[in-house]
Amino acid sequence: MEAPRPPLLPFVTVAREPLLDARVFRVERLRRRSGRTGREHEYFHIAAGSWVNVVALTKAGELVLVRQERHGVEATTLEIPGGMVDEGEDPAQAALRELSEETGYVGRVAEPLGWVHPNPALQANRCYTFLVRDVEAGPAHPDEEEDIEVSTVPLAHARELVRRGEITHALVVAALYLLDA
Amino acid sequence: MEAPRPPLLPFVTVAREPLLDARVFRVERLRRRSGRTGREHEYFHIAAGSWVNVVALTKAGELVLVRQERHGVEATTLEIPGGMVDEGEDPAQAALRELSEETGYVGRVAEPLGWVHPNPALQANRCYTFLVRDVEAGPAHPDEEEDIEVSTVPLAHARELVRRGEITHALVVAALYLLDA
Question: Which domains does chain A show, CATH number per domain?
Answer without folding.
Answer: 12-47 (no CATH), 51-180 (3.90.79.10)
